[in-house]
């Protein structure tokens, strides 16, 4: 039986999560590596095979946009975990708490007094021109002044070993179901490792989620629902999964009606009131009377009921203004402004194309930069300079010049790597990290995350729609 | 419970029951084709006729041979009632109500779906003996029924599921019985001849009724078989028993006991009572085929009434 060793594992050029610069195993990976070396190839490959089967039988599938309807894929789960040391996690946790606190204050300010604009911290045009700014939300007072109840921040680690926030996702980010199911699967894959290594559990996420939602409602007991666009949505698995885990109703827009200033579900026994809605439908589509009138996914009149405080929406509409990629550049200043603190988790340096000096720099240095559309997500609408052809760069330049406000650029950060099982060998692949943050009575960060991995050799794009996979993320307790 | 969820629960179970029934009668007809007297052609068209999809079949095929019919009833995606279409729709419904069913139920439905999909990609209809495949589908569905009953609380959802399953089952029993009407007897063989009896026995097997029938009647004869499948009070796949159970589930949902409180209860009550006060001679006098035909129409009306009463609530609030 062939033994597993890492003699041929290449750590050159990038920060590796498992090995240090001298190719020695980092201490938080040592127990895992001892165990896996004893296992042998045959066992390891078999474990990977059973994991793939388990994902299929669990129906952990998502639909891919742009393809034929009904094309189902699984997000491949690589069984080698991404392990995070106590020290690193402590840092991430402090950084995220600070960040979410400040972003929530920022959103509240933007939809009320706009002090941050008056004090010239953030330019007013930037907000006015943000495609995710919702003027309809001016003056809204969400329960307990919380806007972004659920967020999932994308964090990366660069060659310098430093963590950076890459993106704030404040509009009901997806992926948490994979964090939870990946753990369930890996517990079956490596029971003897879990028995000894103290990995912090994540299973209570859905309890926290439910508690958080209940804490926002006056009704007792309150009826909680997850609003989904339906089974053809790419994240439908997750919507159903979370509803099931929380014991909540899974509803579509057509299941809900507004009557006498309340929201009701259509049930076999008539109408039943709904108190809290975790909506996985974008702002634009939640209420055709207020936002896009062609939406069939939402509920006419919902926003009005929400304004009257008769239903809670999670997250509040309008939070997207704070995860606009151009606003991102101002977050160090935003944190300083509201909390009078220096930012703990740093940003990646960002060039704002609407600012003349930055625009000039970007246009001259495209081949060294990552350029992103400010209102796009999911790996769509971006250009990675070093990996693009001349023609692609020229085409993108035109787009930027036509609408500079819509673009930002950042230096290319070489994401750190984690050993990954690739066709019977172990090779380093680039990863990011998306922890999930719940904001209710307090800010609660689940000790775990979705680690997305770019399975294609050399690729830095980890999005599931672009050939990415995932890893279970182990936050160690000691 | 959400009306949409109730609707999906109902259809998820109907489609699974349909898939199971198709698998069962394909299996039996295949068996039957092995025991034909010399020079007798195999009969596959009656299966297509009973499913009600003859026109579609003829638009896709020029003749009705074994492989073609098995393909059409098992894997043809253009056939909305094929096993593959049924399990696909059952799974879609299950997906839409994922939080209402247990993990075990979902995983089993998912298993059946992949079983049938794999059956298509491995060209089961061309196999010399596809019975193993049909058996797996049948067993998969039976296992699912067991999981459904042993893991789901007896709330409205479970009862809507039962109603869907039982209405489908009653419909399929009536259709299987009707197969005999379309089966040709060779000129040399007459009613009551050995070959006639083989066909009747096959028919019993198609609805898993052979053993229970034998226990009750012993001898095979057409009138007793019809009596058993239409009017038996205790056999779980007889048309009467299915309706009686479905009616009970309806009463559980509405909280009613006797009589009716809505059109669904009314229609199912009337149809069940008609069977209760029927005898087999009367049915034969009316004409078995005609009787079954009318039954199927009325059953559709019951299904429509269930929809109007519980699933299309938008109109009433």
Count of helical regions of chain B: 15
The chain-level structural class of chain B is mainly alpha
Number of separate strands of chain A: 23
The CATH C-level name of the domain at 349-412 in chain A is: Alpha Beta
* Strand percentage of chain A: 15-25%
How many DSSP-defined strands of chain B? 0
Radius of gyration of chain A: 23 Å
Mean pLDDT over the full residue set of chain B: 91
Instruction: Please give the oligomerization state of what you see.
Output: heterodimer
Number of domains of chain B: 2
Rg estimate of chain B, integer Å: 20 Å
Fraction of helical residues of chain B: over 70%
Helix content of chain A: 25-40%
In percent, how much strand structure appears in the residues of chain B? under 5%
First-last Cα distance of chain B: 15 Å
Key terms for this structure?
heterodimer, A: 478 residues, alpha+beta, Dna Ligase, domain 1, four-stranded parallel beta sheet, four-stranded antiparallel beta sheet, 23 strands, 21% strand, B: 317 residues, mainly alpha, 0% strand
């Amino acid at each position: 039986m062939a033994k597993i060793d890492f003699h041929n594992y290449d750590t050159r050029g990038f920060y590796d999560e498992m090995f240090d610069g001298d190719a020695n195993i980092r201490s938080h990976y040592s127990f895992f590596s001892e165990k896996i070396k004893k296992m042998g190839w045959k066992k390891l490959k078999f474990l990977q095979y059973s994991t793939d089967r388990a994902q299929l039988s669990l129906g952990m599938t998502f639909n891919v946009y742009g393809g034929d309807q009904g094309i189902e894929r699984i997000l491949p789960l690589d069984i080698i975990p991404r392990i995070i040391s106590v020290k690193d996690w402590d840092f991430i946790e402090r950084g995220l708490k600070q960040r979410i606190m400040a972003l929530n204050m920022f959103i509240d300010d933007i939809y009320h007094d706009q002090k941050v604009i008056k004090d010239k911290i953030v330019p007013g045009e930037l907000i006015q021109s943000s495609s995710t700014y919702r003027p309809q939300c001016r003056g809204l007072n969400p329960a307990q002044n919380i806007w972004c109840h659920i967020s999932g921040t994308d964090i990366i680690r660069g060659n310098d070993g430093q963590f950076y926030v890459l993106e704030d996702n404040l509009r009901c980010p997806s992926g948490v179901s994979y964090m939870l199911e990946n753990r369930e699967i890996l517990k079956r894959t490596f029971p003897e490792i879990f028995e000894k290594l103290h990995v912090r559990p994540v299973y209570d996420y859905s309890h926290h989620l439910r508690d958080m939602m209940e804490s926002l409602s006056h009704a007792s007991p309150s009826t909680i629902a997850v609003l989904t666009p339906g089974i053809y949505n790419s994240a439908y698995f997750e919507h159903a999964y979370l509803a099931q885990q929380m014991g909540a109703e899974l509803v579509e827009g057509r299941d809900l009606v507004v009557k006498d200033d309340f929201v009701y579900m259509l049930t076999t026994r008539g109408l039943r009131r709904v108190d809290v809605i975790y909506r996985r439908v974008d702002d634009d589509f939640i209420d055709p009377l207020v936002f896009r009138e062609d939406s069939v996914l939402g509920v006419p009149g919902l926003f009005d009921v929400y304004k009257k405080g008769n239903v809670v929406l999670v997250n509040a509409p309008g939070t997207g203004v704070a995860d606009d990629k151009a606003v991102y550049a101002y977050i160090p200043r935003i944190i300083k402004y509201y909390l009078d603190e220096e930012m703990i988790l740093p940003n990646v340096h960002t060039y704002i194309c609407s600012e003349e000096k930055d625009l000039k720099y970007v246009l001259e240095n495209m081949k060294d930069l990552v350029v992103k559309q400010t209102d796009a997500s999911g790996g769509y609408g971006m250009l990675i300079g070093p990996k693009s052809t001349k023609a692609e760069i020229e085409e993108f330049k035109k787009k930027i010049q036509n609408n500079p406000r819509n673009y930002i650029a950042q230096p290319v950060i070489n994401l750190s790597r984690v050993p990954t099982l690739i066709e019977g060998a172990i090779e380093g692949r680039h990863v990011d990290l998306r922890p999930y943050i719940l904001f209710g009575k307090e800010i609660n960060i689940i000790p775990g995350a979705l680690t997305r991995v770019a399975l294609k050799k050399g690729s830095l794009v980890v999005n599931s729609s672009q050939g990415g996979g995932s890893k279970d993320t182990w936050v160690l307790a000691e | 419970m959400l009306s949409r969820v109730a609707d999906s629960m109902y259809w998820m179970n109907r489609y699974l029951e349909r898939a199971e029934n198709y698998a069962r009668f394909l299996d039996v007809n295949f068996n039957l084709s092995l025991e034909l007297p010399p020079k007798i052609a195999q009969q596959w068209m009656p299966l297509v006729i009973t499913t009600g999809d003859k026109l579609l079949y003829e638009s896709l095929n020029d003749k009705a041979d074994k492989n073609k019919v098995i393909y059409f009833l098992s894997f043809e995606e253009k056939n909305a009632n094929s096993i593959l279409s049924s399990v696909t729709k059952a799974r879609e419904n299950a997906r839409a109500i994922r939080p209402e069913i247990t993990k075990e139920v979902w995983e089993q439905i998912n298993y059946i779906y992949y079983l049938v999909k794999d059956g298509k990609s491995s060209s089961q209809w061309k196999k010399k003996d596809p019975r193993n495949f049909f058996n797996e589908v049948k067993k998969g569905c039976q296992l699912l029924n067991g999981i459904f009953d042993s893991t789901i609380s007896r709330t409205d959802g479970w009862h809507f599921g039962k109603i869907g399953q039982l209405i489908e089952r009653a419909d399929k029993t009536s259709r299987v019985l009707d197969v005999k009407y379309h089966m040709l007897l060779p000129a040399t063989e007459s009613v009551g001849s050995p070959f006639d009896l083989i066909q009747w026995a096959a028919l019993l097997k198609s609805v898993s009724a052979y053993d229970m029938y034998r226990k009750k009647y012993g001898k095979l004869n057409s009138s007793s078989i019809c009596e058993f499948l239409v009017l038996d009070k205790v056999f779980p796949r007889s048309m009467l028993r299915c309706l009686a159970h479905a009616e009970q589930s309806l009463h559980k949902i509405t909280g009613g006991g006797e009589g009716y409180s809505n059109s669904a209860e009314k229609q199912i009550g009337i149809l069940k009572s008609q069977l209760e006060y029927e005898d087999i001679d009367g049915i034969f006098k009316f004409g078995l085929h005609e009787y079954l035909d009318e039954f199927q129409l009325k059953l559709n009306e019951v299904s429509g009434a269930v929809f109007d009463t519980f699933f299309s609530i938008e109109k009433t609030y």
